[in-house]
Write a structure and sequence with these properties.
Layout: H1 2-19, H2 38-49, H3 51-71, E1 78-84, H4 86-89, E2 104-110, H5 112-183, H6 189-224
Antiparallel strand pairs: 1-2
Helix pairs in contact: 2-5, 3-5, 5-6
């Protein structure tokens, strides 16, 4: 029985995965969202302040306007004409001239070629709008992943810097002890040099860790457009 149930779940699982849809409106949390994680604030800022995102959103708006224009373009295919009889404009002073009929002339023409082509143009405009929308959705996924990736690197470098600072403090204390022992004749020059070498190595590692931490911070600020300390 358990084996049969497992087989059913195994074959049904792909169907569940296929049916799952992404709500792209939740990829970037709205401005009125409350009590969100710090990294989600970074994602939201990166989306709001990135010029590429704004261009993609304007492309969607432009595609929507183009679709509306084409939906109304059928009006351009109808041409109406009209004129007045000459005697309606300049009536004679006497009645010896007969008044010609009809007094008013109207006409209308319809461009049948464009009449059938315009629906195809509207469909193309709808497809172009969908492409623009999907470009925005793709950018949302890309932007979110990039912010999360850079923030994770930032946190890792922050921890590594903390480790290197502590290691430097230990190396500094060890060197101070070795230096004092060397002055008191309780340690050899080899012990002193070893402690000094360890201290210099820790200093170098700390400088490198500090550089990597600062770079990772700059990488995040490049996306969000403000200082990391200003994010609230």
């Amino acid at each position: 029985m358990n084996r049969s149930l497992a087989l059913i779940l195994f074959f049904c699982a792909p169907l569940v995965l296929v049916a799952q849809k992404i709500d792209y409106n939740k990829i970037i949390l709205p401005d009125d969202a409350k009590d969100i994680q710090f990294v989600e604030k970074l994602v939201r800022l990166a989306w709001a302040n990135n010029p590429t995102n704004e261009m993609l959103k304007h492309q969607v708006s432009a595609a929507e306007y183009n679709e509306k224009i084409l939906k109304r373009s059928f009006l351009n295919q109808i041409t109406a004409t009209g004129n007045l009889n000459e005697f309606n404009i300049n009536p004679p002073n006497t009645t010896q001239f007969p008044i010609f009929f009809p007094r008013y002339n109207f006409g209308a023409t319809l461009n049948l070629g464009n009449f059938f082509i315009d629906p195809i143009r509207v469909k193309r405009a709808k497809e172009e709008k969908m492409i623009a929308v999907q470009n925005v959705n793709s950018q949302k996924l890309t932007m979110r992943a990039e912010v999360l990736r850079r923030y994770q690197i930032y946190l890792t470098n922050k921890d590594l810097l903390k480790v290197q600072i502590e290691a430097l403090e230990d190396a500094s204390n060890l060197f101070s002890t070795s230096e004092q022992k060397f002055k008191n004749g309780e340690a050899t020059i080899v012990d002193y040099n070893n402690a000094l070498e360890i201290l210099n190595t820790r200093k170098t590692q700390k400088i490198t860790a500090e550089r990597e931490f600062n770079i990772s911070k700059i990488d995040i600020e490049e996306l969000i457009g403000v200082k990391l300390e200003e994010v609230i």
